[in-house]
Amino acid sequence: MSTYDVVVIGSGPGGYVAAIRCAQLGLKTAIIEKYSTLGGTCLNVGCIPSKALLDSSHHFDDAVRHFEEHGIEIPGEVKVNLEQMMKRKAAVVSQTCDGVKFLMDKNKIDVYEGVGSFKDDTHVVVDKNDGESITLEAKNIIIATGSKPSNLPFITLDKERVITSTEALKLKEIPKHLVVIGGGVIGLELGQVYKRLGAEVTVVEYLDRIIPTMDSALSKELTKVLKKQGIKFHVSHKVKSVERNGDEVVVKADDKKGNEVEFKADYCLVSVGRRPFTDGLKADAAGVEVGERGMITVNEHLQTNVKNIYAIGDVVRGAMLAHKAEEEGTFVAEIIAGQKPHIDYNLIPGVVYTWPEVAAVGKTEEELKEAGVDYKEGKFPMRALGRSRASGDTDGLVKILTDAKTDEVLGVHMIGARVADLIAEAVTAMEFRASAEDIARMSHAHPTYAEAVKEAAMAANDRAMHI
C-alpha cells in the first residue's frame, strides 16, 4: 500500500494547486482524478473552453460589425466555421490540461486515474477505469471534487436540445433560437457566444435583474449593452415547464403578473447555477458530514469535522470560482505544513467574461445600505476615456464605494473593456486598505482603460478631471 502525507481527491484548480503547494512544502503528495485529463471542470468544460469560444466569436463579431469602420475590407461574406472554432477550443483545452500534467510530473506528484472514495479517515480507495482497485494511505486528505450544473426538478436534460453548459460548449450547429434559463455568469457568456454567431438568444431570469449577486449598477449597464447587441431579456419570469417536441423546445413561464408566457426554440440552455459534487465519495465511511445538497461544512481552517480531512473549492461555502478554489488549495497546504496563511473572502473578485467584461470586488452598494454603512460613491464612464474611443469600446463604467469618514475603498465595480484584468488593481489596493485618494494619487499610464479607475477614485472625492 502506498502511503502519503497528503492525498488530494479531484484535480481542478483547487485540487491541483493544493497538490503543487503541498509538494513544494516537502509533503509526499498524490492526486486522484476520475477523468483521463487533469484540470477538472474549469479546464475541461468550464472557464478555459468558454473563454476560447468567447474570443473566437468576438473575432467574428468584430469582422462582421466593426472592421469596416477601421478601414479593413474583407472581400466576400465573412462566415463561421463552427467545426474549426470547436477544434481550436479543443486544442486550447488540451494544451492547458497537458500543462497541469507537466506540473504534476515536475513536482513529483503521483497521479491516480479513477474514482476516489473513502474507506476510512486515513484510507482512500481508487477504483481505476480499467476495473482495478487500489488503496492509498494518507495522513491528510483534501476533498476537491468540485461541482456539477444544477437543474430544476421538472426539467429533463436530454443533453441534445435541452442542455447544460457542458453540451453548449460542443454544439455541432449554431442554434436558430437559444433560450437561456438563468441570467447568471455562465448563461450570459454562452448566450453571447451564440448571439454573435447568428442565433436569436432569449434569457429568462427568475429574479428582477441579471447577474443578481453583483452591484445593481453593473446589472443595469450590462442589460442595456446586451440588449443593444440583440439579446432579449425576460426578468421576473418563473419557468414552470420545458418540453421537447422533436427539434423544438417549448419553455413556459409565468411573468411577474402571473400571466403565462411561451418561448419556442431549437435549443434550451439550463443555466441555474451549480451544485457541489460529492456523489460517490463515500464521505460517511470517514465520518465526514455532508449536507443535503452535497455541501461540506468546514471550519476557519477548511477542516471538516474530521480533523485530518479538509475540503476546498465548490464543495464548501462561498462563491464557486476557480481562483477562490486555488486560494483555498494553497491555504490548506500551508495549514497542513504548520504555517499560518490567510484568505480574505471579501477580496475574492468576481468576473463575467462577456464583452464588455464585468468585474467586481468587495461590497456592493446594496450590501452597504443593508449594513447601514455611511459611504461615498465615485463613478466614471468608459466613454470619457481616450483609449476607449480609440478602440471603440465606449460602453461601461467604473464605480468605487468608499467609507464616508475614512475614505477606505469598500467596493469596486466595473464594466468595460479588459476590466477582468483591471480588477486586480482594486484587489491590490483593498488588500492594503487603500483610500480612494491613494488610488487617485497613483500615476496611471495614458491612454489606458485603467485611467477610469483613477478617475472614479477622484470622483469619490468630487475631483474627477475628465467628466
Automatic annotation (TrEMBL):
Gene3D superfamilies linked to this entry: 3.30.390.30, FAD/NAD(P)-binding domain (3.50.50.60)
Something else known: The active site is a redox-active disulfide bond.
Family: Belongs to the class-I pyridine nucleotide-disulfide oxidoreductase family.
Name of the protein: Dihydrolipoyl dehydrogenase
Required cofactor names: FAD
Keyword Disulfide bond appears in the UniProt entry: yes
PROSITE patterns: PYRIDINE_REDOX_1
Domain FAD/NAD(P)-binding: 4-329
Listed InterPro entries: Class-I_Pyr_Nuc-Dis_Oxidored, FAD/NAD-bd_sf, FAD/NAD-binding_dom, FAD/NAD-linked_Rdtase_dimer_sf, Lipoamide_DH, Pyr_nuc-diS_OxRdtase, Pyr_nucl-diS_OxRdtase_dimer, Pyr_OxRdtase_I_AS
Gene label: lpdA
GO molecular function terms listed in the Swiss-Prot or TrEMBL record: dihydrolipoyl dehydrogenase (NADH) activity
